[in-house]
Amino acid sequence: MKVVLNLAKKEQKALFVIFGGTGDLAQRKLYPALFDLYKRGYLKKHFAVIGTARRPWSNGYYRDVVRSSIDGMVNSQSQIDEFASHFYYQSHNVNDVDHYETLRVLADKLDQDYGLEGNRLYYLAMSPSFFGTICEHLKSQGLTKTTGYNRVIIEKPFGHDYASAKKLNDEISKYFPEEATFRIDHYLGKEMIQNIMALRFGNSILSAIWNNKMISNIQVTLSESLGVEERGGYYDTAGALRDMVQNHILQIVALLVMDRPDSYCAKDVRKRKVETFKALKIYSPKEVAQNFVRGQYGAGKDMVAYREESMIAPDSMTETFVAGKLEVDNCDMAGVPIYIRTGKRLATKATRIDIVFKKDDDSLFGGQGLADNILTINVEPDTGIDFTLNTKKIGQEFATRQTNIGYRLTKEQVAKVPEAYERLILNALQGNSVNFTHWDELEYSWKFVDAIRNAWDQEDLPVDYFPNYACGTMGPQASDELLAKAGHHWIF
Ligand code: NAP
Known about the structure:
Elements: E1 14-19, H1 24-39, E2 47-53, H2 59-69, H3 77-84, E3 87-91, H4 97-114, E4 120-124, H5 131-140, E5 150-154, H6 162-173, E6 181-183, H7 191-201, H8 204-209, E7 215-223, H9 232-257, H10 266-279, H11 285-291, E8 292-295, E9 297-298, E10 321-326, E11 338-343, E12 350-357, E13 374-380, E14 384-392, E15 400-408, H12 411-416, H13 420-430, H14 439-458, E16 469-470, H15 477-484
Parallel strand pairs: 1-2, 1-4, 2-3, 4-5, 5-6, 7-11, 9-16
Antiparallel strand pairs: 7-12, 8-10, 10-11, 12-13, 13-14, 14-15
């Protein structure tokens, strides 16, 4: 694999147009990410940001909002003043065509003032129902008629099933080609998720054993300790399957089981991911019942049940937990069960991957039983890798014990790790889409998820089926039973 490392710390010249500039995502993630890029020298003199939304804010007020969103990250007053001076606010209703003319005039002026060479990045931090309209008007009102690049960054959710995702994609792709469309999955911007490829393809000892002869099963857990918080309105229409499995979990699974790409570039990595998604077995309703488990949290100590959360119907049948067994029919991994699990109000907040290897023959040790060899990739909050081996128990007798070889990023290293949004925005500026989701990956992942959703929708569950797990546990018992059927158990 030829590794193409884009380490050039080159200043990026661009205009950012942030639709939804007054919103939560912009304030909590985007402005801090832009500031980090500024501190690291990727953004210097030649950048400008237009924040747009309907609220009639002034530039001064907008800059104060930006300042407060990066409070605590700043080294000096002059640094924050200089950074904030690049931000401009334009009140704009995305449905109003005339507003794009005002936006174009401002964009052209900033392009001249800051020497941006016509490079534009449109960040759609808004409801996807507006994406088609925005893309259409950016094109029709001439905002994209520049000498530089015009790229669009899109947030999740990308549709709620295959049909709606395709419709959305058709609307966007009329105006922005695939190579100019950057669909964010922020898990792909996480340090330890990006480490999967380094581990798998940078170590001969691992690539040699990364197959169905040596791997017993793979486990991916994305567990959250929080409930739905203030996202109830959206979450109740989505559920854990659409909110977490269709995107983050399937992307992680693809990185774990895909064949080795020819190079570390978007085209080759995407090719392998798409092959993996195509090889993912789509289940019949009967197979869904055998291989998938859903749950909804009930009340716990000082915590209300999902059905008592604000904006949630008291008889909601939305799942807040999913566990499943996936099968990928590619030659190296055929037959290896891939267990996935995600849920809210679970015992702890953690993202981790456990690769469980097949046990060795223990006859040499008198059949005393050997522990599993497990490679654990701790994504968060712990950041590092564990590998468990069997070693000799200290003492006269010849017995084995499980020993862990662990690697953790130090505090200093963790401090240097770029935030997912910072990394992904830089990738988009560089035109590097290796860590973004492409349409064909989405297409197959939605088809896989739709089969499960449709099977569930056909089941006539009684209202009292939920809740079926208590806050602070690791989900319903059926999730443990799913693995037990195959003689496996959750490692975490
Ligand atoms: P939000 O806080 O509700 O922000 C929505 C933004 O859209 C606001 O700035 C709002 O400003 C603007 N807006 C609404 N209607 C408009 C219109 N007709 N014309 C112009 N502007 C309009 O939502 P958010 O949490 O930032 O999320 C934005 C998108 O990112 C959503 O698709 C969400 O699913 C996704 N996302 C968010 C997060 C997160 O952490 N927040 C994480 C992942 C994905 P005005 O009211 O002033 O117009």
